[in-house]
Amino acid sequence: MNEPQANASTDRDLQPSEYIQFRDDIQPGEERVRIYTSLGNLDVKLFTKQAPKTTEKFLSYVEEGKYEGVQLIGRVHGYHADGHDMQKVSPFPREYASELAHFHGALSTLSESDDEGAFTIIHDESRRTDPDVLDEIAEQRGYDFPDAVKNYYMTEGGAPQYDYHYTVFGHVVGGEEIWNEVQRNDRSMTIKKIERIH
């Protein structure tokens, strides 16, 4: 697994209020999109300040309709947008921010295929990350998780092994009950369209 890049801060002094994924409201500089699926809608806030290149590219694919008809398929760590058009686009850049992590509900560039423009919505059914797992990851990488991040992983779950390896560029803020139900019943969703909302 890649080590954190030089531009990735691992500041341990950030306060919980500075972790913008902890907030459901939309802050200045953030955008919001609605993912219309065959089973219901998901509202997602995008972190345009922390991941400007990734969100810009994602929104350009949205405007071009690249995700229409794409399946959100359940994987081990979440729902992966896996579709035919994704092989025709350029890959997402790598951008890391200390106040973003692969918490349950995060929108990530994590891809388990060759689809360069694919994304994954992180889903942790247990809603709890074992502290021993966090300690093991920290030991392997040579740094500690900030306390706020560690506590959030332990209470909300996620996929910490992907932090500083893939880009977190958004977070689900509405419709979570839909994909929780989908996960429980081992189903997939088809994206009808994605559009910006205000």
UniProtKB/TrEMBL annotation:
One of its GO terms (molecular function) is peptidyl-prolyl cis-trans isomerase activity. Residues 37-184 form the PPIase cyclophilin-type domain. It holds the Pfam family Pro_isomerase. It is an enzyme of class 5 (isomerase). Gene3D superfamilies: Cyclophilin-like. Keywords: Isomerase, Rotamase. Its EC number is 5.2.1.8. Signal peptide: none annotated. The keyword Isomerase applies. InterPro entries: Cyclophilin-like_dom_sf (IPR029000), Cyclophilin-type_PPIase_dom (IPR002130), Cyclophilin_A-like (IPR044666). Coiled coil: none annotated. It catalyses: [protein]-peptidylproline (omega=180) = [protein]-peptidylproline (omega=0). PANTHER family: PEPTIDYL-PROLYL CIS-TRANS ISOMERASE-RELATED, PEPTIDYLPROLYL ISOMERASE DOMAIN AND WD REPEAT-CONTAINING PROTEIN 1. PPIases accelerate the folding of proteins. It catalyzes the cis-trans isomerization of proline imidic peptide bonds in oligopeptides. This is peptidylprolyl isomerase.
